[in-house]
Specification:
Two copies of one chain form a homodimer. Chain A contains 14 helices and 30 strands. Chain A is α+β, with helices and mostly antiparallel strands. In chain A, strands 3, 7, 8, 9, 10, 11, 12, 20 and 23 form a nine-stranded mixed beta sheet that branches. Chain A is globular.
Chain lengths: 566, 566
């Protein structure tokens, strides 16, 4: 490809919004261009990269017997109603009606569409298992898009769905997909962690996110020192250290407390005790049912809202309570009691069992309770894990330290079980001739996000350093001929020779100064830069520089081909 | 691929709705499955075919320097407002809003998106021309879907857009695309006609539809005997034969006419004269402006509404007038006058000049006018071509007979001129450093419709007969082993051998009777059926049958490979 003909120019100016390396370089290099926030054009260079990523995923999916197909983009909304996903918050579904009044969803994932297709067939246990997959546009009506391709409102996803007779068969597939995903990200040049995660709006019992460690990522996860426990912060289990269980039980008392003592900082100062000795209450409202939830936890820990939603079976519905909500249970900010409010539910964290003689729990203007003991003075409906893990905490058995990491979720695998097949009554005929609901799994990879993550991992201060497997072109040929027609001709012939050999080459045939050409080559990031200039011709050589290395080398044409073909 | 694992079974039952061969066989063969009307799943077999069609188009587009990219699916509606296409009827645009209230269109074509992208760059005349293309989902909110993939509400289209400094440069590209399209359809196994057509809702001055002759098609077009004039019915020019111009002019008269004389049939009977001697008025209403239009034409001809819309610059807005509309200009059905009504516009067809002494034009209950002469007794604002051509009519020069044909529009190429670049002010810098608006073209191919048209051309009473270039598999291998494990093993080994040679093979390894396997092979329509059975093994041969031929042959393995590799 001649760079003079390439649509989508590089640009030097950078808006201040482009804080993330992948966002900045993919924009500057002419790979993508934003239409409106979170919706991207893939320009010729960018689509070349995306197509290569797609091809790698396709090869790996095919190699394990998954079959490619595709659903319509518009999903009949009635299917989403069958599974109650039209109301599920957290999943930002876009809907529209056609001129005949039929309602459709712009799919965020395609479980309903696939299950509706599959249940239309007479399928026997002999036909199982099978997995079908697609690359298709997905839509998420996110409130905020950020970081270029890292979080967008429209993207291409490889989503696949497997159908099984039972859990045993599914588990084999889950393992196969685990390995397949690991291989895919490896081929894309990335080490991935399979992170035990919350299944969110998808349904089912367990799932794993594949996360690539990276500062630009939004996924927080923990890895135990032995790397055997890899877990998302929303499901991370950890040991709550005992604080003072050897202390003697004291009598519950209401004591005077100065009016200025309000916050967690205030009480620590006033009592000169660590945060772990105090009770903390955090209030939420379920925005669907309007129930008020009070979560009680040890003062040095934070509530993990996702964990709380999970134990209450209120996925995606809790929001911070406001003054009006607090008033509805007869209290106000800073005065929430750890017991006794009516018209609300109380949930306690496991940490309540690690402290004797808590301070707090019944704060009034000039008094509070002390020597409060969980189980003796109050006890909640549930005592469960609703706390946020932190870097340096230990695994439940206390043996391994947990290291906190940040990364980008580049893929995920879900156990769905019979979540969808039961709601949509999708059945096969088992060996006894009876109808049985499918046991299912689903597996996703966002293509654009992978592309951005590769750039996050492979860049320097000059631009992108593409791994060869996904580079838009293998070779960036730079001709420096000036006005010399003989040299120009020689370069042109060499360009054709490379193309005839089937080597993907971007040929910078533009009339501009060499410095600008080199800067563009660094920005675009093809793995091998090859320069032909009066100097190289004089020496009878060619200049070869790997994008990932500092030094260039003068090589013969024969050496170059040998190198490129290795 | 093992057929036992293939997702998407063949089906024998056919709903009465499946009247069109492609609809029936693509459904029965397990290529596609309808979700809701006009929205299709492409199953693994169908997507294989679609991918091959896509690849052929991609190769041909790349070979002429077009560059692949892709736009978002959701188009900001404000862009469509810039070109006034939100209101244009005929184009059934779907729209929706996101949670922040931003409005989007589900693109039917992507001119606005592409022009918005291009105008964001500093482009110089040196960068021109260029053409960019995409394969993307397109949405049309059609009132009626029909014929399977022939007319759908959602489909993948290859749409491309070229940008030029001037018309001269564009015309070269138009010719290149004409040839490219001809080549593409040839590679897909189809002879296409480049049919001069109406440019409809796209804008611009001229365009050509590529049409494949086929009974299931909806495009009516005419081909002159010498095949030099190939034209869509909506723009077909033809000679209006003189009827009686040698007759003497007679005096205009109002005469009595029996009350039963109402229709065109009635007047012919009453006056015993051919339809061509009568005046006919057809009334329309512009549903945007509510203007009433009366089109007057010779009694033996029909109005072509599209032509009428074009001359009035009212594309896609005319509808048949109803009783209320007629009342609004003081008349009623059957009593429309060829002159004299107020609050309406009159348009006359060229045919009004081919008759002397027309009968009709001022019908009342018991009277009508006779000896009416156009130009003498009445004359309209315009006298233009608004008539429907018919089979057997002659070209304007009277030399070539026009043959009427039906076909499927498999692609189209449009001159857009400065239609979009002026409305959206998209400019480049010309050689004098001045801003100049682009001269544009656009070019479309519907992938699914091409797939269906191929099936329309290549099928018999047993199923599809795929051309090799787009067949889902080259070879359909049928194993007939029964319970014989030795034969089974031999077939399995042969299957692996074919796969290892890189031959695309669908291997029917299912346990079912040979007759059903043969029927499925005919239905699915792979080009070569290869059978291994106890009989062939005994002879040391393999049975080879081409899907398009009646006879099977016994060949050696060597002969088979030689044949398949030719």
């Amino acid at each position: 490809m001649r760079q003079s003909r390439l649509f989508g120019k590089t640009s030097k100016t950078v808006s201040g919004d482009l804080k993330v390396a992948s966002h900045k370089y993919l924009h500057q290099g002419g790979f993508v261009r934003e239409s409106v926030a979170g919706r991207y054009y893939f320009l010729p260079l960018g689509l070349k990269v995306r197509d290569k990523i797609v091809k790698i995923i396709e090869e790996e999916m095919d190699s394990v017997g998954a079959q490619k197909m595709i659903t319509p983009t518009l999903h009949p909304l009635e299917l989403w109603k069958e599974t109650n996903r039209t109301d599920t918050a957290g999943f930002e579904l876009m809907t529209l009606k056609d001129r005949r009044g039929s309602a459709f969803a712009l799919g965020g994932t395609a479980e309903e569409m696939i299950v509706d297709l599959v249940r239309g067939y007479n399928i026997s246990y002999k036909d199982l298992p099978f997995q079908i997959y697609q690359f298709s546009s997905k839509f998420r009506d996110e409130l905020r898009a950020r970081g270029g391709l890292l979080r967008v409102r429209e993207f291409v996803m490889k989503d696949s769905y497997s159908f099984h007779a039972d859990e045993e068969c599914f588990k084999k597939e889950y393992k196969i997909m685990w390995d397949t995903y690991t291989r895919i990200f490896q081929r894309l040049g990335m080490k991935s962690y399979a992170v035990e995660a919350d299944n969110g709006y998808i349904g089912g019992d367990y799932c794993h996110e594949f996360v690539v460690e990276c500062d630009a990522g939004e996924s927080v996860f923990f890895v135990s020192e032995d790397e055997k426990y890899v877990v998302h912060e929303d499901v991370a289990k950890f040991k709550r250290e005992e604080v003072n269980l050897d202390e003697e039980l004291k009598d519950f008392e209401i004591i005077e407390q100065p009016a200025w003592v309000r916050t967690m900082e205030d009480v620590q100062k006033h009592y000169n005790l660590p945060a772990s000795r105090f009770l903390k209450n955090v209030v939420y409202k379920n925005r669907v049912t309007e129930e008020i939830i009070i979560a009680t936890i040890r003062g040095d820990l934070e509530i993990n809202k996702t964990k709380l939603e999970q134990v209450l079976d209120m996925v995606g519905t809790l929001e911070d309570a406001n003054d009006k909500d607090l008033a509805s249970i007869g209290t106000k900010s800073g005065y929430v009691h750890a017991w006794g409010h009516e018209n609300c539910r109380y949930v306690g964290d496991l940490s309540l069992k690690t402290v004797k003689n808590f301070i707090g729990g019944q704060k009034e203007d000039k008094t509070d309770s002390i020597n409060v003991n969980y189980g003796r003075d109050f006890e909640h409906e549930m005592t469960v894990d609703i706390a946020m893990a932190k870097d340096g905490f230990f695994t439940e058995d206390g043996k391994q330290k947990l290291n906190e990491k940040k990364g980008v979720e580049v893929g995920n695998i879900f156990q769905l079980g019979k979540h969808y097949s039961s709601k949509m009554n999708a059945t096969f005929i088992d060996a006894n001739g009876k109808e049985k609901q499918y046991y299912m799994g689903c597996y996703g990879i966002g293509i654009g996000r992978n592309m951005a993550t590769i750039v996050e991992k492979y860049n320097d201060d000059k631009g992108i350093v593409w791994p060869e497997a996904v580079a838009p072109f293998k070779v960036h040929l730079i001709g420096i001929a000036g006005k010399d027609v003989v040299i120009k001709k020689e370069i042109e012939e060499f360009y054709k020779e490379l193309e005839n050999k089937g080597i993907e080459v971007l040929y910078d045939d533009r009339e501009m100064n060499p410095g600008a050409k080199f800067a563009d080559a660094d920005l675009i990031g093809c793995p091998y830069r090859v320069v032909i200039s009066p100097k190289t011709i004089k020496e009878g050589k060619i200049e070869l520089k790997e994008r990932s290395k500092k030094e260039a080398n003068m090589v013969s044409k024969k050496e170059l081909y040998k190198f490129l073909e290795k």
